[in-house]
User: What shape does this take?
Amino acid sequence: MSLSLPALNDSVRKAGDFAQGVNVMVKRRLFNPLRPDHAARSAFNVLKFGPFAGVVMHAAQTRPDAAAIVDERGEVSFGELNEQSSALARGLEAQGIKPGDVVALLARDHRGMVLSLLATGKLGVRTVLMNTGFAKPQFADVAARENVKAVLHDSEFLDLMSAIPAEIPRVLTWVDEKDDVDPSVSTIESLIKARSTAPLPAPTKPGGIVILTSGTTGTPKGAPRDRVSPFASAQFVHRVPLPNNGTMIMAAPIFHGTGLSQFTLGLALGNRVIFQQRRFDPEKTLANIQQYQADSLVVVPTMLQRILDLGDEVLAKYDPRTIKVIFAAGSAIAPDVVTRTLDYFGDSLYNLYGSTECAVMTVATPEDLRKAPTTAGKAPVGIRIVLLDENRKPITEPNVTGTIFVDNGFAFTGYTDGRTKEIVDGMMSSGDVGHFDADGLLYIDGRDDDMIVSGGENVFPLEVENLIAGRDDIFEAAVVGVDDREFGKRLRAFVVPGPESKRDAQEIKDYVKANLARYKVPREVVFLDELPRNATGKLLRKPLIEMEIDAD
Assistant: This one.
């Protein structure tokens, strides 16, 4: 990987990237050069109905009886998904939802979520994927900002609906008996009933999907996914050998970019996708791997940690070695979790560094991670990564930290509120800082806005967090900067201890002092039972910064 800005003519480079992308898709069996008719029909479906609906429609045409998903109510084929979603699209249309409208989808992983995504895609409706961890203020703010005309949601979120105007139509995507739902309320089943399952005409233009940012520092922003191309998949499968015609365990939520991208790819590769029972259960994940002989697993990093923290006695009950690929993305993975994952599951961990805005940036393979557990890996086909200094000049030397900029043709074009990320020479800022080593492997040093200036020294929390969390007696650690009269900011570490921990704050401080510079030693160490995280497992630093701590 070059550490300098690309020197090739842009059009020549893009042509080369396109050719490489096609070659990757052929190699991974996403594209069969012997059946150009299938390829043309698939490309048409993706361009007209969007990537998710296009993939399922193509599968329904080529293998209608094959199992697509399995949820707690059983198995559903591609043909059934296609027909039921066409009927649901007509039912939504009868409710007054029309092409170009915006609907919110607030659901866990199950057939109702999938049918809703398919139906809105077929109608040309824009779908905002809401976070299942939302409180009322966040839900109301996002619904108002995105101009939501209707909400499709699970019955467990009925109370949340009081945060939006009563005149906004609602349709239930999943009904639990315990929620005592009024039988007159519209459900996707009632909208499907007695309606035609025949194919729908293509909308004038695809509705698109809006994925929300993590919202760890405020109301999540909306990042539209309007660029539709079958070649975007090459960026994922170039360095991640997802199996064909196998079984995928989908532990990550599909309202998040990680889950949605891999769910779509899994179906495109002919895989049967197994959903959890709507909420993540670490031991159930292992049981599903064994029961279904799964060969791929999609997670966010905290899920891996929860699986491994089950303990040796529980882990020994299951055989996970059918797994060939563990796809993880969404946040950094602690180095000890990387090593433990590789040791337990085998060399199957692929860690993607990307974002809602920039899409794919780099992938670390098992080989990369065995060599360097903290690396983010290298960029796949069609992507360029550069580091720029504070004057936005390129950094060409290894082991020098700079802001990470990415050139990815499938990055978003701006938030739904009109704002965008910083752009320099056509490359988008990831918001992170990092460095390359001499072998071209990328390392993330931290978020640009997470940097703590303490006594004039710059500290990125991730280095300190990884060190503390790497101890055998510690599960997790988070480091934040809090106001300090003398130093401006001082470091405070929050630590989740393991069963063998002595809970000795001074011992943790001494450990950091023995391994890192003195100014990186936390002035305080606070022990917690768990760290605050959002629904996709991302650490929430604001509650830690604002937490009132008793003085020693």
In short: The two ends are 50 Å apart (CA to CA). Residues 109 and 278 are 6 Å apart (CA to CA). Residues 81-226 form a domain with the Rossmann fold fold (CATH 3.40.50.980). The first strand starts at residue 67 and ends at 71.
